[in-house]
Amino acid sequence: MEVNFPNSMHKNKVSASIIAVAKDEGAYLAEWVFHHLYFGFSEIHILINRTADTSGDILDCIKKKHGNVYYHVVDDIINGFINKSSSLSQVQSKLYLMWYRKKIIKNDYALIVDIDEFWTPLDFETDISQFIIGLSSPPVLSFEWACKLNESLFSRPYQQINELSRNIHVKSMFNTSLSVKKIGPHHIESDSTFQVMANGHQMDMGPHVQSSEMEGPLKRAFILHRLWRSQPEYIAHSFKSNPLAEGKFLSHNGIVMKGNRRGYHVPKQFTTYFNILQDNLDDYENRYNVFLDNTGIRELIVESQKMVVDRFNKGVKFIQSYSAENSQVKDFSRNVDLEKAKIDISNFTKAHN
After folding, report:
1. Model's pTM, two decimal places?
2. Beta strands in 114-232 (DSSP E)
């Protein structure tokens, strides 16, 4: 059985690419790729860097079935930027702009996100082309963050009822005909002075909306941000190697803890709920299972999940090597139930041995 995605069934629509940088994201790439194919993105580009898990194998299998999924190893480019830059955001911005200027992106629009960010229509049905056309194809279109709460270990991104913590930051999609000067993690600098939100209202040019926007209902589309995932994953993802962080943040035996972690579900603000019709969710999940079967990547995903477990175990040793009163460890550990996280990891390990 083949999976038919919106882009393959409709012609003469606005086309959109989605681009992400990924490092050791093999546990999550398949669901992210599937999701954006499902909602009609014409091309998917993933920039793989300094990766030791099964990401490349997973993407090779996907590409055999879906020729509009591309991945590119950018280690040499990243390493060159690291020698000249002082922050991860600077490195990413340079990489995004260089990649955009290569003219590899042939579609009408481009959206740059991370692998934990999912473009999400409020009705869980409208595809990206229909959405852009419905807003009269603006030059820059910005989607607010909504951070997913209460996830379990390696859970699927959506349930019928989803608790979210809204955030003023946006991710911006832009028309590829623009003269782009800078691509940041949240917005672009270009020759356009017109930027709209997902409800079609114009907003100030920049990386975030006014906080008053959080008081209204969710707009017609948003970015589901899996910022924390489960508690074990929150710990594991905070200990990915990062040469730009060495010497700047807390470290022990060559392991560096991310410096921008202030606790699990912190800050939690503007909480709301996003509900999906059961029929829509069932269709989404059924198609995802067919996607996994057709690409034959289930075991490869589990291999990468085991690497997440390994990072968790290293992270726990790191945390326990410091006093609980250390200010950075104290901030990082806020709302973390370490014993429960260990039980979740133990159950996963038993199920996959």
Report:
1. 0.93
2. 117-121, 140-148, 161-175, 180-183, 188-190, 195-197, 202-203, 221-225
